[in-house]
Amino acid sequence: MTLRIAEIFGPTIQGEGALIGAPTVFVRAGGCDYRCAWCDSLHAVESRFRNEWAPMTAAEVWARVTALSGGRPLTVSLSGGNPAIQDFAPLIAMGKAEGYRFALETQGSVAQDWFAALDMLILSPKPPSSGEVVDWVRFDACVTAADTAAAVMKIVIFDEADYLWAREAAERHPDLPLYLQPGNHTPPPPEEEDATIDMDGVLARMEWLVERTLADGWFRPRILPQLHVLIWGNKRGV
Amino acid sequence: MTLRIAEIFGPTIQGEGALIGAPTVFVRAGGCDYRCAWCDSLHAVESRFRNEWAPMTAAEVWARVTALSGGRPLTVSLSGGNPAIQDFAPLIAMGKAEGYRFALETQGSVAQDWFAALDMLILSPKPPSSGEVVDWVRFDACVTAADTAAAVMKIVIFDEADYLWAREAAERHPDLPLYLQPGNHTPPPPEEEDATIDMDGVLARMEWLVERTLADGWFRPRILPQLHVLIWGNKRGV
């Protein structure tokens, strides 16, 4: 049985959310059940890139992670696409046996029993601007599946409608640590790895989100930009 | 009994370290037992600015924090200068009674029993480039005083000597969560609130620190820039 892997890279630092700044190796899974309008990882989503996804066994993925990290334990970030549509249980078991930690980011559309083996489950329900609609029954099943793994909620926000949606969505899970992240309107086109970004726009949206949230007196969420975009632009593989 | 307060501002987000992105009101204490070469808050350190520090009772400080936050609990960040050279116990007691949380950042040169009343104690031992020398007996006393408060270590790094020093300093407290932060070589002059910064230099130092640390296979620290500098430059009061 093989996994579809779009890319494995690192070590670098996690650029967003609860683990921001933490050294990590990324394992990006190919394939997704969503088609977000502003997806920044289309090369790991669209079927037309399927021939670029490597079929790899868990042992092969693990060998690559070990090589990249020099055998020194760190956090492995499972991303995508939606990594929850494949079976990462064998990979997680291999890594945990060596002292590595695992975080997985998913929109929360597919729950897996093996979420409980993670160190952190980052659930990122998609706001209206994505064009997708959250199935909260499935989302809640993901929270339940996390069990003793630390579950957090991260919501990407592009505009006022997203913000108002986030306020309500967050209320569904008042006990989850909450992260708001301004959207990047100029994600890299999948064919062009080093496209320039609208840095002024990225910064302006961050400023707006901070002001909007704090003016509301909504002090629950942490508000964090995509640090890797600020530092490295849209360059892939960092 | 009054406190010497250089400024109170917010709510904004914490720009660095363990609480990065968290909504906070800053209470910046005036006065410091250190004179770091690259201090970015000289207006709260040098005696020549003493006439700008307001003598305020804890109740007066608390009234201001309450007004700024609209009475909604958030994290209050006690900074400076070195806030540990004054008595913030009464202020912390007032705030905790209302559900607020308190974080304090200090170099770790003066321990106080009331550190135990904090939610988080951020200890920032100064590297060689500061021109100061850490007294580790005093530093360790701060760690002990934190008791059940979450203690973390944050080290600012300007150059290779600082980096090598940080590797050894971190080993003294292997159980503390550790944060590395690239130094900002163009901090705002105290007389000029909106001085421009060398953003390319700030970003270059962040890239260097990430590469240096990860190439070493040193995966313990989180590496985070001063987010407020990336977003707002050196503007004061955000």
Summarize the structure.
The structure is a homodimer of 238-residue chains. By secondary structure, the first copy, chain A, is of the alpha/beta class. Chain A contains six helices and nine strands.
Features:
homodimer; about 240 residues; alpha/beta; TIM Barrel; nine-stranded mixed beta sheet; about 20% strand; globular; S-adenosyl-L-methionine (chains A, B); lyase activity (chains A, B); lyase (chains A, B)
Largest sheet geometry of chain A: 9 strands, mixed
- The radius of gyration of chain A is 17 Å
For the biggest β-sheet of chain A, the strand order reads 3-1-2-4-5-6-7-8-9
CATH superfamily of chain A: Aldolase class I
Q: What's the CATH topology name of chain A?
A: TIM Barrel
Give start-end ranges of low-pLDDT stretches of chain A: none
> Would you tell me the overall average pLDDT of chain A?
94
User: Which range best describes the helical content of chain A: under 10%, 10-25%, 25-40%, 40-55%, 55-70% or over 70%?
Assistant: 25-40%
The tally of helices of chain A reads 6
Count interface residues per chain for the largest interface: A-B, 30 and 30 residues
* Residues in β-strands, percent of chain A: 15-25%
Count the beta strands of chain A. Answer: 9
Please write the CATH class name of chain A: Alpha Beta
Shape of chain A: globular
What is the assembly state of the chains in this entry?
A: homodimer
Number of domains of chain A: 1
CATH 2nd-level architecture of chain A: Alpha-Beta Barrel
